[in-house]
Amino acid sequence: MTKAVSVRAPDLDALQGVIAGEVILPGSPDYETARRAAIARFHHVRPRAVVLCATPADVAETISFARRSGLPAVPRSGGHCFAGQSSTEGIVIDVSPMNTVSVSGGVAKIGAGARLGDVYDALNEHDLTMAAGCGPEVGIAGLTLGGGLGILGRTYGLTSDQLLGAQVVLADGRVVECDAHHDEELFWALRGAGGGSFGVVTSFAFRALPAPAATTFHLTWPYEHAATIVDAWQRWSPAAPDEMAASLLVTASGNPDKPPRVNVFGAMLGGEPETAGLLGQLVTRIVVDPASDSRLHMPYRDAKRHLAEHGPGDDHPEDAHPFSKSEFFRQPLPGEAVAALLENLSRERAPGQARELDFTPWSGAYNRVPADATAFVHRSELFLLKQAAVIDSGASTSEREAAGGWLAHSWASVHPWGSGGVYPNFPDPDLEDPGHAYYGTNYDRLLRVRERYDPHGAFRLLP
Questions:
Q1: Which tens digit of pLDDT belongs to each residue from 60-117?
Q2: What are the b/e assignments for 175-208, b being 16+ CB within 10 Å?
Q3: Which has the closest alpha carbon to 247: 261, 236, 260, 258?
């Protein structure tokens, strides 16, 4: 982390006098709440200031102030970055006050500070929605700029694939409106590599989608059938109709006495009979009937809310510390790789340490966009596997090291079959070559875009 330079408090107070938003300094009643990102692992980071920017001009003033003072500055929307890149000991440029949502002519204009739950609610009033994730508190900006996956993704593509234009504050303070015809290279880069890399995005224009009805589902099996289920899922889910978004989650609870569980869950754009038919194909492959099987047909907004509130996974404490690694795969894992993955998952673990294997189907509309059409390069994949270790905030050093060792070993056990590609919204600080892992053959072009729009490196998040 870049070391912050000492700056006198009156200088920061002076910034308060020239912006429409608010400058929150250490000692302020709101500081402890404002400084903390959504992920507790980074709650120890104490910025010199959190600037709640109400307008693009506020962002420009804050960038200028940071440059003059020598303080590092990072943008923050929802603060859910797995690598803590929206936290700093310098200045947090918090865009959450810019959170309006409006709809006209099928285009949704959304402020960069909006959260997904509010976006869905606003669009639902027009019987519209957008292809994005489920977490209601996730910021629209970070999700979009790193790609954005969700239950509509196999039908319509990434969240960034729905982007029509963006307003961006550049390092020199200029505010530009970029789209397919204006600042085209910047617009290209934002779609998959734009999170704090080339400027601070203050608003988006998205293609809105008709809100379909959907059928949510959740099937579970005992862990003893995990190998069969993983093998069946990876050959069935990515090849299913685009309307089907069926994820696989294998969980080992933070309670060592609680056996691991296998979950297949998600939603289908269709009725219960069609959903039951497709799920039946999976069960036939597995041979063993699920221990539980629930399906609910409902309006799309209700489906998103249901998945957010009732999705599988261990109920981690709010102050738990997650660590993860991920990789894309273009072919099914062979039996020996699945066996090694599951053996590692079931190894002895300390109380309070949870483990997860999270498989997300790719293919469909995700892959129907050329790899060089946007900065998001991962367009030939079969599925994405994210492996996570979650530990209690009070875990000892040895327990943290053990969790990290499990994660590294688990990732290494299947890496030989991976594509080498990593989802940008699952950043991994331990990657040997992050630029090519995140952006592949698009990386060199991204470096040229950075040289054009941020030649002095004000925004440091592009590797």
A1: 999 999 999 899 999 999 999 999 999 999 999 999 999 999 999 999 999 999 999 9
A2: bbebeeeebeebbbbbbbbbbbbbbbbbbbbbeb
A3: 236
Closest CA to 329 of 244, 253, 387, 254: 387
Residue 120 main-chain phi, psi, to 5 deg: -60, -40
Beta carbons within 8 Å of 118's beta carbon, 6+ residues apart: 99, 101, 136
Name residue 332's amino acid. Answer: P
Helix runs in 318-384, H state only: 335-345
DSSP class of residue 139 equals B
Angle between helices 300-310 and 116-124 (to 10 degrees): 160
Judged by DSSP in three states, 354 sits in: strand
What is the C-alpha separation between 92 and 24, in angstroms, rounded?
Answer: 10
Displacement of CA 164 from its chain's centroid (Å) = 20
Distance, CA of 339 to CA of 440 (rounded, Å)? 29
What is the number of other CB atoms lying within 10 angstroms of the CB of residue 371?
15
CA 313 to chain CA centroid, Å, is: 17
Give the HSE-up count for residue 225: Cα atoms under 13 Å, Cβ half-sphere. Answer: 19
Examine the pLDDT at 425 and tell me if it is beyond 50: yes
Q: How far apart are the first and last CA of the chain?
A: 14
pLDDT digits (tens, 9 = 90+) for 105-158: 999 999 999 999 999 999 999 999 999 999 999 999 999 999 999 999 999 999
pTM higher than the cut 0.90: yes
Residue with tokens 């293609």: 207
Q: pLDDT tens, 168-225?
A: 999 999 999 999 999 999 999 999 998 888 999 999 999 999 999 999 999 999 999 9
Q: Which of 19, 92, 31, 108 is nearest to 56 (CA)?
A: 19
Task: Return d(Cα 137, Cα 151) in angstroms, integer.
Answer: 17
Chain CA centroid to CA 254, Å: 23
